[in-house]
Amino acid sequence: MSDTTPNQTTDERIKAEPLISRLMKRPELGAIAGVILVAIFFVITADSAMFTASGIINFLTPAAQLGILAIGAALLMIGGEFDLSIGSMVAFAGLFFGVCVMVWGLPLIVAIPITFAFAGFVGAINGFIVIRSGLPSFIVTLAFLFILRGLSLVGLKWASGGSTQLRGVRDATENDWLAPVFSGDAFPGFFAWLAERGLVETFSNGTPKVTGIPVEILWFVVLALVATYVLLRTPAGNWIFAAGGDTTAASNSGVPVKRIKISLFMVTACCAALVAIITVIDAGSTDARRGFQKEFEAIIAAVIGGCLLTGGYGSAIGAFFGSIIFGMVVIGLTYTNFDQDWFQVFLGGMLLIAVLFNNAIRKRVTGER
Amino acid sequence: MTDDSKFHHGAVDDKVAPIVQMQDIQKHFGNIIALAGVSFDIRPGECHCLLGDNGAGKSTFIKTMSGVHQPTHGKILFEGKPMSFATPRDSMEAGIATVFQDLAMIPLMSVARNFFMGREPTKGRGLFKRFDVEMANDITMTEMRKMGINLRGPDQAVGTLSGGERQTVAIARAVYFGAKVLILDEPTSALGVRQTSNVLATIDKVRKQGVGVVFISHNVRHALAVGDRFTVLNRGKTLGTAKRGEITPEELQDLMAGGQELAQLEGSLGGTV
């Protein structure tokens, strides 16, 4: 033993940690720094319209649609698994929802819950196969990427009589009392009130330029908060970190690893279903290309948000900001003179930087040298 | 610690009833006889060392004790009553905690989160039932301080701790959750001199709280530094149990090796294997 007294509360060998180094250990730091950098970039290069209320809503909408997926993907990644089928799941859940509304004529109060239940079921199949076979989730969900995409095509042709698009969802849902929860803008009255008082920009006829906050943004924010709360402040959150950190150690300690992982697959699939429902009602139609390549974008947003590919580390808030970076760049480029196709270059570059950064952070946290 | 060279603080009275008695345990895997009749007991407040060379059956034996394997023959008595542990959870609930070599710890997670992994304290009800982080942090800091480890903070990642400190966290966790018997699987095998000494000191602290410690090792010197009784396993059988003071390191070493070969090496190694 050392010659220190047992009741001593401080250790002379441990330096007080400076704030900056404590911040460095937060998984979401990279994403927040990224948001700031990207914002600065566009403040300099883009048209000033980008940072008006309507411009912000403009880039937050795609960010939210991606972000709902990315938060699900982030939770799953922290739990140590991947789901490459979420993009296809958007199309598949969209098809199922479309069929519920159009073919079976169900009201939203029935159609939406059964769409979630159905998506959860498909997610559970994914999870079950991964857990039972012990195969990497990467390969199992890659199979489902194609299976679900293919089923969406086949199913759409069956439901629409030969086309890969199912139209008329808007007419079918327009008067449903539940539709405003999943489509359109929230708080129109509040924005109209602001416009009357001249607090927000208006068109010349007096209607506000921003008529409300698109509901997906609210869903996105609420989901990020709930996911963060679950991760940091509930036993289930601790189990997710544990399951992703080391499966054996976790189950030896009594963590229900299998249940956690299967539940995470279900949550991710339900996030895809939520995006499907919102976009299908909004667009009024569903088609087989919906959610195309979204699985990669969601995973990239999660990684930018600080999730480690190896699991056990990351944050939902990080994924939230990762998605905002995404939306800012996709939409932001249209406000600049740059060619829009720079987007993909940017995406790859961002991913590379994020992975390198995360790797360094992980070494810091675990004290690897 | 003032007398830090000696971790031993008195043997337990023979009359104290054992917590766990393992009687004539046999374990067969197909046609392989891993354990061919092992008897072992552990009393509260003692450190009983289980010694044996590689392949002697130490691991199989402790896995039987912790409920991972079920014995083919033989009886397990827990506090005098026959018990059969179907899963590790059963034995854990009875009060037998095992610290395996992998320690069941997650380097990326904080000490506090690891400490309470799978047994998180909660507050609130229903939908607001949540992980009581403050309580978890306080308990972790207190328990670790008791074991002589000053953490930078409860949010320090386990990955930043040394091997000996991790071992201590695992031991402190088991004791905090009410272990009556603590099985330590080669806790000192991968550690340096200083860290070994810290872990041995921890074992002594735990023993003083009345916990029975089963210390598995193939290092005679580590065992002698802290053990009260010594049982040697060889080729799936117990070669006998000796009390502290009744046996010399050389004799123990010979028993472990089955009385062969090592005798010739003794001279060149100076008896310090």
UniProtKB/TrEMBL annotation, chain B:
The name this protein goes by in its record: ATP-binding cassette domain-containing protein
Pfam families xrefs: ABC_tran (PF00005)
InterPro entries: AAA+_ATPase, ABC_carbohydrate_import_ATPase, ABC_transporter-like_ATP-bd, P-loop_NTPase
Entry GO MF terms: ATP binding
Record keywords: ATP-binding, Nucleotide-binding
Residue ranges of domain ABC transporter in the record: 20-260
